[in-house]
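Workshop exercise sheet. Pairs work together: one partner reads the sequence aloud, the other fills in the structure field after running the prediction. Swap roles for the next sheet.
Pair: D.N. / O.F.
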Amino acid sequence: MGYEIVAIKSLTAAQLEEVNQLAVICNGHDGIALKINPNMLEQRSGEHTEDFLCYADNKLVGYLGLYVFHAKEAEVSGMVHPDHRRKGIFTGLQHRAKAECRKRGIPALLFIVQQKSQAGAAYQKRIGAPYEYSEYWMDLGKSGEKP
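Structure field:
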């Protein structure tokens, strides 16, 4: 099976839906909540390439998004469909993202890996990326009222 990686500056509505559906599949399989920031994906400026999609037979099987908040680093979040893991897809996505960052003068990639993501932790270990720190998510609640 051949894979095709597409690098784009802004997602179409159909691509955004594909990314969201892939996240649902990966989250369900891994028991996690990937941080892909759908609202931010909808509002990409279109100025820079920040989204990398991998297709197999016209079906999205991998995604990597760059989130650049300053010139020192790009945050990276991504996923690969469980049926297509361990085939070099995320490595291919990561290499394309790294080349884009290099082109833009961004020296570092900061990978966002959920604590319970065994696949994410294994990939980081395989590429020798050191653990630096943890973040916490806080949720006030759906109604916006204090508990």
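Discussion prompt: The mean pLDDT is 89. What would you look at next?
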